[in-house]
Amino acid sequence: MRPFGERWLAAYAVNPRDSRGRLWPEAPSPTRSPFQRDRDRVIHSTAFRRLKHKTQVFVYHEGDHFRTRLTHSLEVSQIARALARSLGLDEDLAEALALSHDLGHTPFGHVGEEALDACMGAFGGFDHNAQALRVVTRLERRYAAFDGLNLTWEALEGLVKHNGPLLGADGQPTERYRSRGIPAAILEYDAAHDLWLGTHASAEAQCAALADDIAYNAHDLDDGLRAGLFSLADARAVSFLAGIVDEIGSLHPGLEPSRVVHEMMRRVITRFVEDATAESARRLGALAPRDADAVRFASAPVVAFSPAFVEADKAIKTFLFSNMYRHPYLMRMRKKADRVVRDLFGIILADSELLPPEWRAGLDGGNEARRARRVADFIAGMTDRYAEAEHGRLFDATGRSC
After folding, report:
1. Contact 89, 14 (CB under 8 A)
2. Other beta carbons within 10 Å of 57
3. Residue 173's beta-bridge partner residues?
4. What is the mean pLDDT of residues 205-213?
5. Other residues' Cβ atoms within 10 Å of the Cβ of residue 356
6. Terminus-to-terminus CA distance in the chain, angstroms?
7. Phi, psi for 297 (deg, rounded to 5)
8. Which of 159, 207, 157, 198 is nearest to 19 (CA)?
9. What is the DSSP string of 78-99?
10. Which of 31, 121, 256, 382 has the highest local Cβ count within 10 Å?
11. Torsion angle in degrees (nearest 10) through CA of 59, 62, 65, 68
């Protein structure tokens, strides 16, 4: 049997043999590395299965071919593995992080998170990164010896620092958390299992984060074109995309539009991956990190786009914001989703008997903050269709409780 440590890794990669371990110590597996076990635990989790019915942008019943959180996570994992492989990193850790990065998302995409954050305003707010940590450390209940999935330190730090360090050099929260502070769930776990909140995550985690950006751009373009929210002619407003469309037209004149779209998506992903590989190799060469911790303590991320592709990324995001995310049709759906989440939160917070029996345990005593967090956990775990069904059960057509 080939030992898991036989695969070649660069000096700056996270070597599974050097893992800092798990909060609850476990005997090593004779057939899988610690990060392979992390990946497998994520795949077998209830939260991961629910991603099948949590949408990215569209509501689940609008079509069978639009992305869900599950298909997005699978696409991110493929890109993350490709980046990690090209840079000599641990592919299994990159994959585990890619598959788990959306576990904390609510139903109805970002509008659901914004609604739940508003509902939780008096109780510390709601943050999907903090919720993902809650899912893998507390809310999943599959094992006899511990709550959560008991993932490795490396997986947890990558999950928490998905968007970079949480603390600056001065020990204060970075810009993302400056106004409201770091979520309590992260601080509570960090106190028991220090995740080095002031450093960057590993290069493997940075691969997963950049893969998320690449997948989002390419696949939201694909979904927006498929839904008819904008056309290929509209997409030409982005010079990066116009160049690709012209190239396809030159190589394949008269190609049917649906194939032009697929060819464009292939090229968008390929060019961003190739650019990230080249720029990351350049940064790693300049830094010459001797180990994975040197990557963590670097002054900037080592996995990144070149300046030209940073601009292309911004241009695509700007186009999608105007032409897709703020499209009148989607804005109507956003209002409906916002109302569903707010209605559910309000009625369940007022009457915790509406929670399933296993969710009511330990809520006696009138602690409103604890009850609100439990309600938020419950709603965040809902799929789109379950949230709509519960709303239909609890409210009539006018929005009044039944």
Report:
1. yes
2. 25
3. 167
4. 97
5. 7
6. 61
7. -90, 5
8. 157
9. HHHHHHHHHTT--HHHHHHHHH
10. 382
11. 10
Average pLDDT for 292-319: 97
Q: Which domains does the chain have, with CATH numbers?
A: 32-192 (1.10.3210.10), 204-328 (no CATH), 333-394 (no CATH)
**342: Cα separation from own chain's centroid:** 23
- Comparing CA positions, the residue from 263, 106, 107, 123 lying closest to residue 180 is 123
Instruction: Give residue 196's region: left, alpha or beta (phi > 0; psi -120 to 50).
Output: left
DSSP-assigned beta bridge partners for residue 55: 68
C-alpha span between 162 and 226 (Å, rounded): 30
Q: What are phi and psi of 399, to 5 degrees?
A: 95, 5
Summarize pLDDT for 270-302 with one digit per residue, the tens.
999 999 999 999 999 999 999 999 999 999 999
DSSP one-letter string for 214-226: HHHHHHHHHHHHH
Q: What is the pLDDT of residue 61?
A: 45
Largest CA distance in the chain: 71
Tokens of 58: 């569209």
> Token pair of 255, please?
């190609």
Neighbours of 88 (CB within 10 A): 17
> 118: how many CB neighbours lie within 10 A of its CB?
14
CA 337/CA 59 separation, integer angstroms: 9
CA atoms within 13 A on the CB side of 327: 16
- Other CB atoms closer than 10 Å to residue 219's CB: what's the count? 21
Report how far residue 346's alpha carbon sits from residue 350's, in angstroms, rounded to the nearest whole number: 6
202: phi then psi, degrees, rounded to nearest 5: -65, 165
Partners of 152 in the β-ladder: 22
- Looking at residue 1, its pLDDT comes to 36
**Two structure tokens written together for 123:** 């109780």
User: Which residue matches tokens 């070597």?
Assistant: 15
DSSP alpha helix (H) spans, 228-256? 232-235, 239-251
pLDDT digits (tens, 9 = 90+) for 340-356: 999 999 999 999 999 99
The pTM for the full model equals 0.93
